[in-house]
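Q: What structure does this chain adopt?
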Amino acid sequence: MSIISNTTVLSNFAAIDSLGSLQALYGKVFLSTEVYKEIQHGLEEGYTFYSGIEEILHPRAEDGWLHLTSLRDEKEVEAFSAMPGRLHAGEASCLAIAQHRGWLLLTDDKAARHHAAEQNIAVSGSLGCLILGVERRLWTLAQANVWLERLVASGFHSPVRELSGLVKKP
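A:
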């Protein structure tokens, strides 16, 4: 299954200097051109944790693991246009793409997650990524909890402070 991320999850992992953990977890991650515009705006606003993203962004970087995609047909454009007004363009485009291509959507945005549930779009977020990495033994529970602590310190609103009760035992 392909993965598309909106700005929230990318920002969270970039803010704690762990964007590469998404590559370890999923290999290739897509972002819409609207999400890319939001990231560019963030750089202009001084969010330096986005610095260097061009080095991992395909097609700008031939071996980049972040891949740009855009709304590719009339159905996706119509779905994008029909999204609730409370959603930003990045969230709306990712939802439309995930819905029509059957992709997993990574988002921490409450409104986007609610809409995804209404449309039966598979969704995960920053916590889900941390948990999945532990379950796949890509990193330890201790490391995931350190990252969670750093996410919270950087402004992430987490419903939990510790992941041990959420990780499935092998």
